[in-house]
Amino acid sequence: MNRNEAREAVVRTGRLLEERGLTVGTGGNLSVRVEGEELVAIKPSAVPYGLMTPEDVPLLDLEGRVVEGRCAPSSEWRMHLGVYRARPDAGGVVHTHSRFATTLACLKWEIPAVHYLVAASGDELVPVAPYRTFGSPELAEVAVQALGRRGKAVLLANHGLLALGADLGEAFGVAEQLEFVAELAWRARCVGEPALLSREETWEALEAFRGYGPGRSS
After folding, report:
1. Residue 30: CB atoms within 10 Å
2. Is-above-0.90 flag for pTM?
3. Active-site residue 124, yes or no?
4. Is the pLDDT of residue 163 over 50?
5. Where in this chain does the record put each Class II aldolase/adducin N-terminal domain (predicted)?
6. Which residue among 63, 76, 124, 176 is the active-site one?
7. CATH architecture entry for 3-210
8. Each residue's pLDDT tens digit, 85-132
């Protein structure tokens, strides 16, 4: 997508984050790569999702310089750019403060394989990155390290969830699916010890996810 399309996608998906209950107020943030340019469109700082317009959305280069936009970028711009620099496969990034994922992050519990949709994370569980101050270079560093080379999601201790995808739509889908799995994990633990999928079962689900989508034979 071009610059205008990227900014519109940030506005549209940001509103969806709020509508689906994946964040509260101005919390959380999201970004998307601009095709053919070393640029990223990112949520503006402290602007409510419902009031955000495409003109508000800043465009940054991968060094963090604002190229376009009338608002300051999200305080988490370092974390977003760190992901894009480390992961060429990332076309969109979503950071949420969703209730159940954040609850597990506050307990420093991984999101385990209580349901096959954990495969949306690209791994057999969602790891927890250690706590670092929001917006800091240190948080960006530990988040990128925890994602590794194939992970699509990581919990940020005492903070929230970070998800990536080939595009912004996929990143949003990863965040939404993992919030569902986090809720299941929490509810199951309120009753007893959840029965987890085995490593083999989880990897079978991961392989099935790679062949899942429109136009694919079932």
Report:
1. 30
2. yes
3. no
4. yes
5. 8-186
6. 76
7. 3-Layer(aba) Sandwich (3.40)
8. 999 999 999 999 999 999 999 999 999 999 999 999 999 999 999 999
Token couple for 105 = 């992050």
Residue 135's Cβ-count burial label (10 Å; 0-12, 13-18, 19+) is middle
Mean pLDDT of the chain: 94
Residue 38 has a CB neighbour count (10 Å cut-off) of: 13
The C-alpha atoms of residue 183 and residue 189 are separated, in whole angstroms, by 10
